Here is the input.
Amino acid sequence: MLSAPVAAGASVDPRGPLHAYARARLADGDGALGLAVASYRDALTQDPARVEIARRSYVQGLESGDGALALRSAALLDQAGILPRDGTLLLIGDALGRKNWTSARTLTDRMAEEGNFAFIVPIVRSWIAIGEGGYAPPVIDAKDRFASLGLRYADEHIALQTLARRDLNAAVPAIRKALAMRGSDGGALRLTFAGQLAARGATTEALMLLPVGNAGFARARADIERRKGVKAAGAAVTPAQGFARLLSRLAVDVGSDQAGGTLALRLARMATFADPAGAEAHIVAARLLTAQGYAPGAVEEAGKVPAQSWYAPLAQAELIDALAGAGNSAAALTLARAQAGESGAEPERQVRLGRLLADTGDFMGAAAAFRAAQAGYAPEQTPWSLLLFEGTALDQARRWDEARAVLERAAQIAPNEPLILNYLGYAQIERRQNVGAALELLKKASALKPQDASITDSLGWAQYVTGDVAAAVPVLERAAAGAPFDATINEHLGDALWSAGRRYEARYAWTAASVYAEGDVATRLAAKSKEGLKPEYAAP
Here is the structure.
């Protein structure tokens, strides 16, 4: 039975559970995760029947990485019948770790009934079967409405399971399918499969998964060629480890949608509980912690991958982002420079360094890094995104002529890419250069991406600058409706409205812009709101 709330006027024992709970909530709100976790743990110990304490402790245990607190809280919530659906995953991971196959099966059956994560049930059951000493490969019913979701993950686990059974004929096709499904985010999976293959004597096949000359795979290739450490790297994956990999993969996919960030972090944390020594689980958790604003926790998580591990380069990449997010830009830059300076450094390392340099105001250094990222490509095959990065950095460094040449090259390579067309068009409108041609670029960008408020604003502003105020106003109004808190868009709208004789509405737009404006922009907006639009107050 759950305890009743404290009656009004009752005193609160400063050493009691409510005091600990209040302290936990305050620490949680202040971002003091260590104190919050300790306080929730204390409150839960003193009053395990209070559902609100258990609920908050469950969330905090997951987000902070305290598996013991999360499991204790989950058990209490489960007993009360209010365990969140993701809690079933936590309990399954615990059962697999304890090799309690009966409990794992019961919980998996429950997950199937609950529905939320039913699409991974066949994969989980296949791992349970392996734990029980048999093997039943995951079978996804093609008629199931969520079959496509299950199939997204199945091949990776078929490959790992058949490798554990030393069935290379079945494993190799599954490996190819799994890597094709992962795309560019498959570095850790390549390392895992390579280790598994090498440990089973398939050295040639293992090396084929690791591109020659790529710094991220250099240590693994060298070890495999020397047969060093491959036995440990290729140890058969346990059911708990397989489940952890499934959760990590699911976390990456859920986290790709901004709305799924909280659930993604919970899943990633559960993966680290199920496989505390698993490198990929910690790498994914670090990435998601940084994305959710918990950079100090991400630094800690990335640091759990040993420096001599094959996965260390991937963990260091996440550590760089985490250090930057935690405000330690000097340490982030030092590590980023070291990574980018290694022989065979992949383009991603140069891009990461370039972004850090741009964040610190070294735009020429950033441009050089983005240029270095292009070194491995033929001129006509250079990714347009790298050219856009370089052109943007040169523009910010006030090297517009050089920037325009780079951006025009990007537009030649990707003539239907709205981001390039918008940047190149708007930058010229700002400088009142090639206004007619710039307007055509922006019309094309807007047609390709009509719902993008920034591009819509660029088009409307170009129309205003070229003297077509009547056409500009409705376009800018549409942009402001799509991004009502954007200072630049609202200032542009205000200027156009004033020029159209709609003075009251113009001041309203300038006032909206001033809410988020800073520095010279805020000063200019204040002057316009007071005196009206004058040439010296016009937006650039």
